[in-house]
Design a protein that fits this description.
With 456 residues, this protein is of the alpha/beta class. The protein folds into 3 domains: 2-128, no CATH class; 133-254, Rossmann fold, CATH 3.40.50.720; 261-448, no CATH class. It has helices spanning 2-25, 34-53, 65-87, 93-128, 147-155, 184-193, 212-218, 263-279, 281-294, 343-351, 358-363, 377-383, 403-406, 416-432, 435-448; strands spanning 133-138, 159-165, 173-175, 178-181, 198-202, 224-228, 242-244, 247-253, 300-306, 312-318, 368-370, 399-401.
Length: 456
C-alpha cells in the first residue's frame, strides 16, 4: 500500500524542489535555456534509477525511519552528482550549478520530511479513519494476565480484543476487563452480538491447533480466522505465511487481502459501466418499451442477492417473467420452456440483455464487472450446506460475468455437480485474480457471445 504513495511523495518532493530552486536562481526567465530544461528533465529521471539500485522502495514494515532516510538521501545525492557531472560540458554553467545546489539542498529537506510522514501514515490512518480492528481471541491454555500485553506489543495496538475464548478454564472470568469465556456457545453469542469479524488463535509455537469447531460454527458468517504464530520471539519471521496490516499471521480462513492492487479494478468498473450504459442507452430504451408492452408489471425486476462479505443488496434486471410468477419466499430457477417467461423475456434471457441494468449495481459499488455471479438469497441458503466452500464466493464483490461463465457454467444449475463445478471456477478466480485476468474474461465474454445452452 505505502510504496505507490512513497513514490508519488518522492516525485512531488523532487519536482517541487526543482521548481522552487529555479524560481530562486532564475529570476529572469529568459536566462533559463533549453539546456537547463533538458538538465531538469534528466534530474527528474535519474533519482528513480538510483532509488531502484539502492532498494529505496523495500517494504516499509521491514524498514526503520532512519534507514529509509539514509538510503533515500544517499540515492538522491548520488543522482545529483551524476547530473552535475553531465551538465558541466555545456556553456553558461554558473547559474545552472547554483540551481542544482539549491535543488539538492531543498530536496534533501523535503525528502526527509516526506519519509517521516510516510512512516507515520499507518498510525495516522488507524487513528483517523481505520480505527483499531475489534477482534476475538481463541487462547487454549493461554488466557493469562500477560496475554493482552504481548498482543499489544506485537501488533502496535492496531487491534483491540473484545472477548477471549479459553476452553481449558473451569469457569468464565476476565483479563484486563475483557470477558474470558470457556464455552463455545457463549463465545458464539458474543461474536454475533458485537458483530466481530476477526478471530485470532493464540497457541504455543509448533503445537497443533484444532480449528474444526471454529470452521463449523462460523463458516457462513464471513468471519476471518487467523493464527498469530509469533508471540514470544522464539519463532523466526521467515516462518509466517502472510502479513495483515503489518502483522505476521497465518491465514486459516480469510478474505483475500489485496489492498491497493484492486484500485485499477474499482476505477475500471465505474468507467466501463458508465460507458456501457451511455453506449447502450438506445437499446435500454427499446428493451424498456418492449418489456412494458409484453405484459403488465414493472420494467425493472429487483431481487435480493448477497454481495461482498454477505451484505444483501437489490440486483437490477429487466423483468422477463409475468408478474407474480414466483412464490414469495422461494425462487425456482428458470427451465427450458418455462411458462413463467414472457416472449420478450425469452429473447432477453437467451442473449443476457436482461442483465444490462446490473451495470447500475456496478456504479453503486455493489457489484463488479467481473466476479462470481451472485445467486438468489434462497439459493444460497439451499446450496451452502450442500456444496463445500460455497459461501466463500462472497468474500469478494459479485460480478456480471465471471470465470465460471466463460467456461460454460451460466444459466440453470440443474444438478449439484454443476453448482460444485461453478464454485470451483469461482474459487480459482478468487485465488488467482489479477487485473489482466479480468480483461481476459471480458474479452472471452464478448468473443463467446452472451448466449449459452442453459440460458433460458
Amino acid at each position: 500500500m505505502l510504496t505507490p504513495i512513497s513514490k508519488a511523495t518522492d516525485f512531488l518532493c523532487i519536482s517541487g524542489a526543482a521548481y522552487i530552486s529555479k524560481s530562486i536562481v532564475f529570476r529572469d526567465s529568459s536566462t533559463f535555456t533549453h539546456i537547463d530544461g533538458l538538465v531538469g528533465l534528466l534530474g527528474l529521471m535519474l533519482p528513480f534509477l538510483s532509488f531502484r539500485l539502492t532498494k529505496v522502495y523495500q517494504p516499509f514494515r521491514n524498514d526503520s525511519v532512519l534507514g529509509s532516510v539514509i538510503r533515500v538521501q544517499f540515492a538522491w545525492i548520488f543522482a545529483q552528482l551524476i547530473l552535475v557531472a553531465a551538465s558541466q560540458p555545456y556553456p553558461d554553467g554558473d547559474l545552472r550549478n547554483r540551481w542544482l545546489l539549491w535543488w539538492t539542498a531543498i530536496a534533501v529537506c523535503a525528502l526527509v520530511a516526506g519519509r517521516c510522514a510516510i512512516h507515520a501514515l499507518p498510525s495516522m490512518l488507524r487513528s483517523w479513519r481505520f480505527a483499531p480492528t475489534r477482534i476475538a481471541i481463541v487462547a487454549p491454555r493461554g488466557a493469562k494476565p500477560d496475554l493482552l500485553a504481548r498482543i499489544a506489543s506485537q501488533t502496535r495496538n492496531a487491534f483491540v480484543p473484545e472477548v477471549i475464548f479459553d476452553p481449558s478454564l473451569p469457569s468464565d472470568t476476565s483479563v484486563d476487563q475483557i470477558p474470558v469465556v470457556h464455552e463455545m456457545h457463549a463465545f458464539e453469542q458474543i461474536m454475533r452480538a458485537q458483530n466481530l469479524r476477526e478471530i485470532w488463535i493464540i497457541n504455543p509455537p509448533f503445537q497443533p491447533i484444532s480449528v474444526e469447531h471454529l470452521f463449523e460454527t462460523f463458516r457462513d458468517d464471513f468471519v476471518n480466522i487467523r493464527v498469530l504464530p509469533v508471540l514470544d520471539g522464539c519463532t523466526s519471521a521467515e516462518s509466517v505465511v502472510g502479513i495483515y496490516r503489518g502483522v505476521p499471521l497465518l491465514n486459516v480462513m480469510a478474505t483475500p487481502e489485496r489492498g491497493w492492487d484492486t484500485l485499477p479494478k474499482e476505477i475500471f468498473d465505474r468507467i466501463f459501466s458508465l460507458c456501457v450504459l451511455v453506449a447502450f442507452s438506445p437499446v435500454l430504451l427499446a428493451i424498456s418499451v418492449a418489456v412494458k408492452l409484453s405484459s403488465p408489471g414493472p420494467i425493472v425486476f429487483r431481487q435480493y442477492r448477497k454481495g461482498v462479505n454477505g451484505d444483501v443488496f437489490s440486483i437490477y434486471k429487466f423483468r422477463t417473467m409475468y408478474q407474480g410468477a414466483d412464490t414469495p419466499g422461494s425462487v425456482l430457477q428458470a427451465r427450458k420452456g418455462d411458462a413463467r417467461v414472457t416472449k420478450v423475456g425469452r429473447i432477453l434471457r437467451s442473449t443476457s440483455l436482461d442483465e444490462l441494468p446490473q451495470f447500475l449495481n456496478v456504479l453503486k459499488g455493489e457489484m463488479s464487472v467481473v466476479g462470481p455471479r451472485p445467486h438468489a438469497v434462497e439459493h444460497d441458503e439451499y446450496y451452502k450446506d450442500l456444496v463445500q466452500h460455497y459461501m466463500f464466493r462472497y468474500r469478494i464483490k459479485p460480478g456480471i460475468t465471471g470465470w465460471a461463465q466463460v467456461n460454460g457454467y451460466r444459466g440453470e444449475t440443474a444438478a449439484i455437480e454443476m453448482m460444485e463445478a461453478r464454485v470451483r471456477f469461482d474459487l480459482y478466480y478468487i485465488q488467482h485474480w489479477t487485473f489482466w485476468m479480468d480483461m481476459k474474461i471480458i474479452v472471452l465474454t464478448i468473443l463467446k457471445g452472451f448466449v449459452g445452452a442453459r440460458a433460458y
